[in-house]
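During the no-cost extension, the postdoctoral fellow (Dr. R.K.) reprocessed legacy sequence entries with the updated structure-token encoder. One reprocessed record is reproduced below for audit purposes.
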Amino acid sequence: MREDHRELIEAHVAGICFRESEGRVSVLIAKRGAKRSLYPGLWECGGGQVNAGENFDEAVIRQIREEFGISVDRAFPFGTYEIAVPNLSQKKIPGLKFVCIWHEYVDDGTGPLLDDHEHSECRWQPIDELSGFDFIPGLRDDIRTGWGFYSRNSDILLQ
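Re-encoded structure tokens follow.
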């Protein structure tokens, strides 16, 4: 019976945030800080731990807001992932990947607000200009998959 034994585990979300501007689509990417324990100095798209009392959608929307000062209009799950953590008792951190639709910058800002505890830089990068970035393992493919999901469903996602 489930109530007889409970496992406390960490779960994560990852958001790949797209925006359209002047006929071009860009993805938000950020370089992880050099002092981060996992993947220091590599490029990612944002996300993190699900907090107690949150569902996955709420977690990814909060993470993008906290890390970049961006308000996400909607978030749509499109896959799962795991982070290997052999030094922890759970060995793997499960995660859910989301396509996020940029809405606006918080506080009437004109660009992303960087949380320098997490990242050393961030930018909106055109979707067709991603070569030359050292992404965390698998992320380049995730961006392509997320972009495919977004482009096939943009008429629904942008409503």
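The radius of gyration is 16 Å. Residues 139-157 form the longest helix (19 residues). The remaining legacy entries will be reprocessed before the final report is submitted.
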